[in-house]
Design a protein that fits this description.
1 helix, serine protease inhibitor, alpha+beta, 72 residues, Trypsin Inhibitor V, Chain A, two-stranded parallel ribbon
């Protein structure tokens, strides 16, 4: 086990606090650099998710509206 507070999963990182505030694409690049086999799933913040555990799944939760919603 690693000496850091972050648990390790098969010898790799399990969380990426450094991507908070980045765009989804930028966050994906950082995550994939550390975990090339990651299955990245982007979900709205607050989405209910199953509690099953998969070693290659990384969920990114987003909650910011980037532009003005409009009809049309």
């Amino acid at each position: 086990m690693s000496s850091s507070a972050e648990p390790e999963c098969a010898g790799g990182k399990t969380s990426w606090p450094e991507v908070v505030g980045l765009s989804i694409e930028e966050a994906k690049k950082v995550i994939l650099k550390d975990k090339p086999d990651a299955d990245i799933v982007v979900l709205p913040f607050g989405t209910a998710v199953p509690e099953d555990f998969r070693f290659n799944r990384v969920r990114i939760f987003v909650d910011t509206v980037a532009d003005t919603p409009r009809v049309g």
